[in-house]
Structures are given as structure tokens and as C-alpha cells.
Design a protein that fits this description.
Largest interface: A-B, 23 and 30 residues
Structural class of chain A: alpha/beta
CATH superfamily of the largest domain in chain A: Fe-S cluster assembly (FSCA)
Number of helices of chain B: 10
Largest sheet of chain B: none
Largest sheet of chain A: 4 strands, mixed
Number of domains of chain A: 2
Number of helices of chain A: 5
Number of strands of chain B: 0
Strand order of the largest sheet of chain A: 4-7-6-5
CATH superfamily of chain B: Ferritin, core subunit, four-helix bundle
Number of domains of chain B: 1
Order of helices and strands of chain B: HHHHHHHHHH
Structural class of chain B: mainly alpha
Helix content of chain B: 55-70%
Shape of chain B: globular
CATH architecture of chain B: Up-down Bundle
Shape of chain A: elongated
Strand content of chain A: 15-25%
Oligomer: heterodimer
Chain lengths: ~170, ~250
């Protein structure tokens, strides 16, 4: 089966906003900030990074927290500060915006691809379709637990290669 | 602080206390669950609740203009100042009891938070918007467990039934509005709890039937959490929850 790349309407909107922003260099710097639990994807890929504003030497970065209790959010905030400080932007404010609530639809197509390479099945919206094992590609998979190693993941196993794997839950 | 703002603050703190206390109870399962995956699941749900509490406490702190921090409100108040519903503070019991509680609370929370997303208070609506997504998969899981234990072995059935019987007297309180809520309902800030009762009963009864469990008879019912009158278990829970901040004020990770 060929994989047709699908970009969600929600991601398209984010992407258009980023493209239209005048602070390209800062957006690019922030691509260095990774999810501390899944270091292959950036906060942009994850859909956490929403906006960048620069006014009179002050940079404000708007992020949307993923899960209410996700302990990674605090680390992400600190990482944003340190990346921008190293690039000689000392005056930085990180604003946490709750609404609209974070959704996996905001994730970038590149981020989804990297999750898969990393061994985590990316979130999928299509109901009824079996998850694909990120190791061997088989669709013969079973849910082990609604919760995996972090709030955002569920635990599955592949009935063909018998390996367990994480699935990034769709919310 | 004017009257309207005080009512909003009372409402927000009660919401925070509900989430904090249930989150703390769930965290007691850490390393004690029946098997590893369940251990992860219970502590993840605990984390969702603690996160929900944090958002409400932070909003409360903002409403007080920073007089107390979110941590101060959570960790430096005495039992009588907590406004959580009694069902949240009951000890975890056995696994069946804990899952029965989650199920009864999840059915309520999903519907309540879905409505609270429409609150005229933007901050309350935003927090509810996050909570509703989490409640959706919380319920998926607790529902599964009620079915599996209820329609399982003789032992699991008996334990699930016992859990429900012990919890039933605390259900009424879910549907009682405080004075602050009554005022806030008029302004479109809060949701009328009483209106959720029928839908809650229908959903719960359908699942109990499918799980071959009986709806407990009403023998007694108790309220008081919203007035700060708690069960005898609550002080013990707080002693553990607040120990670090009491012994080492201002301590951070």
C-alpha cells in the first residue's frame, strides 16, 4: 500500500501562520527545542509551539500544553529560554495558552514520520482501521493498555513480530 | 474581594480540590497496582488529575491577585478549608473499589466538563476543554474494568458489587449545587449539577446491567465536603500529601 501524505486542516493552518510570521529566525531556532520524552520531534512538530512575537527586544513564545499533568511542559519552557538566550535573546517570555486545547491534529507530517522511525506509532484518526506496527508494518496488532510510558501514549503489541510498541494517542 | 469574585474563587477552588484529592488518592496506587500496565495507567490518570488541579489552583491564585500561590492553596490549607466532594477522598480500597469510583466519577465528569466548556468564564472554559478530552479516555478504561470485573469471576463480581455498594451513599453529593454555584449558574459560569442526574443514572445503570451488577439500594446518603466537613480518612491523606511543604516550606524539585 502506498502511503499518501495527508496534512490535516489544523496543521495547514498552523503552517500558514508560521509562514506569514515576520520572525522566521526565531521560529527556526525553536526547532531545536525537542520533546524531552521523545527527543526526535521538536515542539513545532508536536504541535506545542503556537506563536512567536517580537516587540521592542522582547520575545514572547506561545505554547499550548499537551496533557494537563505532563511533566515535560516545564522542561520545554526552560529549554525555550536557554535556546533563545544562547542566541542572544535574553528577554524572553513563555506564555502558556490553554484554549483551544491541544490536539494531535496539530502534529506535523514530518513529526509523524519521525515518530514512526523512532518506534512509536503516530496518532491516527481513522476509526476501525488497525494500527500498523512501527517495527514490521503488520496490521495485526492488539491493545495492551490505554496508557504507556507517558500520558500521551498507549501500549500495543504486534501479533506478527511479537514486539510491544507505543502508540501516540489521538486526542 | 467583592462578592461575585469571591463566589468564582470558591467555585474554582472546589473544582481544584476535587481534582487534587482524587489525583492524590490515585497516586497511592503507584507501585501497588495488580500489574505493571495497570500501575502505569493509574498513575497516568493521577497525573491528569493533578495537572487539572494545578490549572484550577493557578487560576484561583490569579483571582486572589497572587496573595497565595497555587502551591500554597494546595499544600498549606487545613482539612476544613478543603471543598472537595467526599467521594474523592475515600481511601483507595481494593482495585475493584478504585475502579468503581473512577467509573462513577468519570461518567459524571465527562458530561460535566463537556458542558463547562461553554462557561462564560474564558479561563474555566479553557480548563474544561482540556479536561473533557482526558475524561473521555478515562471513562473508556474504567468502563472496561467495570464490565470485566462485574462479568468476570465470582470473586471479581463480588468485589465490584461491594465497591459500588460502599460508594453509593456518596453519589447524591455529585448533584448538589453550592450557594456559589447557584449564583454562578445564573451568570453562565457554572453548570447546574442537578440537571445531570438523569443522564448519569441512565448511563451507569446500563453499564451495571451489562456487567451483571445490581444497582445498590439507597440506604443512607451523606454530604458535607463542599462545607469542609470531611470523612475521618481525609486528615490522614492530607498529612501525607502536605508533609513536604509543611516540613520544608517552599521546597521545590
Amino acid at each position: 500500500m502506498t502511503n499518501i501524505p495527508v496534512v490535516s486542516a489544523e496543521f495547514h493552518e498552523r503552517f500558514a501562520h508560521r509562514e506569514a510570521s515576520g520572525n522566521k529566525a526565531i521560529w527556526a531556532l525553536l526547532d531545536q527545542v525537542k520533546d524531552p520524552e521523545i527527543p526526535v520531534i521538536s515542539i513545532w512538530d508536536l504541535g506545542v509551539l503556537q506563536d512567536v512575537n517580537a516587540e521592542q527586544g522582547k520575545i514572547s513564545v506561545v505554547i499550548t500544553p499537551t496533557y494537563s499533568g505532563c511533566p515535560a511542559m516545564r522542561e520545554i519552557e526552560q529549554d525555550i529560554h536557554s535556546v533563545l538566550e544562547q542566541a542572544a535573546y535574553p528577554n524572553v517570555e513563555v506564555i502558556s495558552r490553554l484554549a483551544p486545547a491541544w490536539t494531535t491534529d496539530w502534529m506535523s507530517p514530518e513529526g509523524r514520520e519521525r515518530l514512526k522511525e523512532y518506534g512509536i506509532a503516530p496518532p491516527q484518526r481513522v476509526a476501525g482501521r488497525k494500527l500498523q506496527c512501527p517495527q514490521c508494518g503488520s496490521s495485526d496488532t492488539t491493545l495492551i493498555s490505554e496508557f504507556g510510558s507517558t500520558s500521551c501514549k498507549a501500549l500495543y503489541k504486534c501479533n506478527d513480530c511479537l514486539e510491544p510498541f507505543d502508540y501516540f494517542k489521538c486526542i | 474581594m467583592n462578592g461575585a469574585r469571591q463566589k468564582l474563587l470558591d467555585f474554582v477552588i472546589a473544582q481544584a480540590d476535587d481534582a487534587m484529592v482524587l489525583g492524590q488518592r490515585l497516586s497511592e496506587w503507584c507501585s501497588n497496582a495488580p500489574y505493571l500496565e495497570e500501575d502505569l495507567a493509574l498513575t497516568n490518570v493521577a497525573l491528569d488529575y493533578v495537572g487539572r488541579a494545578k490549572m484550577f489552583y493557578e487560576y484561583a491564585s490569579k483571582l486572589e491577585a497572587g496573595k497565595r500561590s497555587a502551591d500554597d492553596i494546595a499544600f498549606l490549607r487545613d482539612g476544613r478549608d478543603f471543598r472537595n466532594l467526599l467521594i474523592m477522598e475515600l481511601p483507595i480500597g481494593d482495585f475493584a473499589f478504585s475502579m468503581a469510583r473512577q467509573f462513577l466519577v468519570d461518567v459524571f465528569n465527562l458530561e460535566y466538563m463537556a458542558l463547562l466548556q461553554q462557561s462564560s468564564d474564558a479561563e474555566v472554559a479553557a480548563i474544561a476543554g482540556k479536561a473533557v478530552k482526558e475524561s473521555r479516555y478515562h471513562l473508556r478504561r474504567s468502563h472496561e474494568w467495570v464490565l470485566r470485573l462485574g462479568d468476570g469471576t465470582e470473586e471479581s463480581h463480588a468485589r465490584m458489587q461491594k465497591g459500588l455498594d460502599e460508594l453509593w451513599g456518596y453519589i447524591d453529593e455529585l448533584f448538589v449545587n453550592t450557594d456559589a454555584e447557584v449564583a454562578l449558574i445564573k451568570e453562565g459560569v457554572a453548570i447546574d449539577r442537578a440537571l445531570l442526574r438523569d443522564s448519569w443514572s441512565n448511563q451507569v445503570e446500563a453499564v451495571l446491567q451489562e456487567a451483571t451488577l445490581s444497582k445498590p439500594g439507597v440506604e443512607w446518603t451523606v454530604t458535607g465536603g463542599r462545607q469542609g466537613i470531611h470523612t475521618e480518612h481525609f486528615g490522614h491523606m492530607l498529612a501525607e500529601m502536605q508533609f513536604l511543604q509543611r516540613a520544608y516550606p517552599g521546597l521545590e524539585w
